[in-house]
Amino acid sequence: MELGERKLKILSAIIEAYIQSGEPVGSKALVEMLDHTASSATIRNDMADLATDGYLEQPHTSAGRIPTAKAFRLYIDSLMKRQPLTEKSRHEIEELLSGAASDPERLIEEASQALAEVTGCAAVTTTPDQQSSSIRRIEVLRSGTRTAALLLMTSSGMLRSRVCRFDSDIDSPLLERLNNTLSAEFLGQPLSSVSLAQVQGLLVALGEVGLACAPALTAFVELVQESAEAEVLLSGQLNLLRHPDYELERARSLLSFLSQRELLANMLTAHSGGLRVVLGSESPRPELDGSSIIVTRYSLTGGGDGSIGIIGPLRMDYAATIPRLEYFAQTISRLLRQLMNDG
């Protein structure tokens, strides 16, 4: 059933008043908000219709009404007027992130922390999905008599390292041969194309030192697999405990869900494209009832992209928060692209 213009104005006014105060909204207050364009009796009748249609609910017998998730969905999709970011806000976001612009992983971690700070919600980010990224650099550096550090850098600028232990003493000629063999075989190759069989084939190519290099080859396979997987970073979980909208038990349930990084990663990476808002009951997870997830993507020109989003109460200032989140994503994308081009 389509709502008429007056009911849409009433619903929008209720939602915006509720976002600001957290209190039920009554008909007398709405008369003032709508500049006396409708009588209190008319507004009461319209509010009753909106409640019947599932847009409003009455938490107490004598109280006003509060919006439901259905109302927030209509508001976000059709009624909300986004608040454009000021130049000051844009500058502040860029200042928060520019200090980490030389390190992709640190940049994403700093973005998660900064987003949690400026929104007062929990922030979640994923490192870029690097299945399509290629190997830019491989290096094996001696760190001890029988140990070496294996470094792997991808085309998106992500750097991973792992220490591997050899069964016997290692020398410079062995490491040089191992470096040359790995680089010749894998430099420029997509991470997704590296197979265990291909790496095992190097045991033969390395000849008499093949068995001695086996620990490093095993570490290389593990490092490639680790690099290809998106990592989930979570910041500001304790912010949720400060929101009056969360009862203690609901907050505990939500925090327990957020600790399950694999579930969170699946929820975020299942989304592709632009901004998405998932409201409470729209999610299959009961722990998210009464909460909202706002998520968007940042992208790389060298392959792969990642997610950045916030998790907070259903009563959220979406008009101000959504543009802020989108600017975070735009800034991360720009800084990562600059870093890749400089590299």
Could you outline the blueprint of secondary structure elements for this entry?
Layout: H1 5-21, H2 27-33, H3 40-52, E1 56-57, E2 66-67, H4 69-79, H5 87-98, H6 104-119, E3 122-126, E4 135-142, E5 147-154, E6 159-165, H7 172-186, H8 196-205, H9 214-228, E7 232-235, H10 248-258, H11 261-269, E8 276-279, E9 291-299, E10 305-313, H12 318-342
Antiparallel strand pairs: 1-2, 3-7, 3-10, 4-5, 5-6, 8-9, 9-10
The CATH superfamily of the largest domain turns out to be GAF domain
Q: Would you report the number of β strands?
A: 10
Mean pLDDT: 88
- Rounded to the nearest angstrom, the distance between the terminal CA atoms is 56 Å
Q: Strand portion, in percent?
A: 15-25%
- Main sheet specs: 5 strands, antiparallel
The number of helical runs is 12
The CATH architecture name of the largest domain reads: 2-Layer Sandwich
Spatial strand order of the main sheet? 7-3-10-9-8
CATH class of the largest domain: Alpha Beta
Low-confidence spans = none
Q: Tell me the domain tally.
A: 3
Radius of gyration, CA atoms, in whole angstroms: 26 Å
Q: Would you kindly provide a written description of the structure presented here, covering whatever features stand out?
A:
The chain is of the alpha+beta class and 343 residues long. It has three domains: 5-79, Orthogonal Bundle (Arc Repressor Mutant, subunit A); 87-129 and 231-342, 2-Layer Sandwich (Beta-Lactamase); 135-228, Enolase-like, domain 1. 47% of the residues lie in helices and 17% in strands. It is built from twelve helices and ten strands. The chain has helices at 5-21, 27-33, 40-52, 69-79, 87-98, 104-119, 172-186, 196-205, 214-228, 248-258, 261-269, 318-342; strands at 56-57, 66-67, 122-126, 135-142, 147-154, 159-165, 232-235, 276-279, 291-299, 305-313. The strands form three sheets. It has a five-stranded antiparallel β-sheet, with helices on both faces. Strands 4-5-6 form a three-stranded antiparallel β-sheet. A two-stranded antiparallel ribbon has the order 1-2. A hairpin with a 4-residue loop joins strand 4 and strand 5. Helix 8 packs antiparallel against helix 9. The model has no long low-confidence stretch (mean pLDDT 88).
